[in-house]
Structures
1.
Amino acid sequence: MKGEVICTTCGHVGKVKKLTKGSIWIEIILWICFIFPGLLYSLWRLISKQDVCSQCNNPTIIPVNTPKGQELLKKDKK
């Protein structure tokens, strides 16, 4: 998502943050011990990245230039 977004959970307005699921430490251990599981785990982590709110880490974000985004902005300003 490009531009500003608003979080429907916490109301934060700003840029998104990319969140990678899983653990880097588990990935390193799997690569050291077992190459194939390490590869699978790395691929899963790469494809499971998602945009989340930079404040609360929830994926409940919508662009501010949508009708629902504008509604939430007006509600937060009151």
2.
Amino acid sequence: MKYLIDTCIWIDLLEDRVGKKGEPFGRYASKFILKIIKNKETLLINKEIFLELRKSNIINLFLRSFIILVDMSEIQYLEAKMLSKERNLPLVDCMSCILARDNNTIVITRDKHILHNLKDIVKSSRPEEVK
């Protein structure tokens, strides 16, 4: 399986965030990353996000072996920009979905824009829902 982890999940992991109802979002993110490692699955990540995560030491040498860095083409960017405008959604969410769709991956997120408004573009799931 291949996954693209949305920024909100990385933040959950970094900050060990807890939801409004006490949901352990940080723990869910951590368990999901461990699942990727255990099952030797693939994680796609945008190069810009990778560089930011590397600064915070979240991405170490071990985890890098499961990561494929992807760049967005000009055509993908224009499609995401058009989708963002048409649906009045954040551009960054549309960019993630276009990248995930074109690389046949599942987006792991808590973002309602992706989970609900872009489900016709890409398959998405919360980390705790992935089996």
3.
Amino acid sequence: MAEPVEVVVVDSSVAVKWFSEEETTDKALELRDRHVSGSIAIWVSQSLYFEVVNALRFKPDYDAKKLSNAIGFLLNLHLQTTSMDRKLLSRAGEIAYDGGVTIYDATPVALAEAKKTFCVTADEDTQYVKLKPKGYPIRLL
């Protein structure tokens, strides 16, 4: 397989849309499909898996079986996953304080900085509006 032409980081607000019909699900699926085809590489933090599974657990149309199937599919996407380390979490802490967001929202942005790319989010009301004006590498889905 050839080297992907683009590298992006996605946060859990995008990944949840891979399993749930919501506004902009079509854009999230397009991004996922580009990863599967090899035209982009999607990077995520380890916490994304817990965040996505937790969000799906509380979706009214999910039960234990549907959740288990989603977990299998998520893991089979072979997303590029980075290990948590002091440097990444410290930078996430700095971003969280500076932008007034949670560590969960700041971590993919810190990862995007480390990978010299941008974080794609669907969280326009909080993460995007607080971090974009401060110059952080974040784009709306």
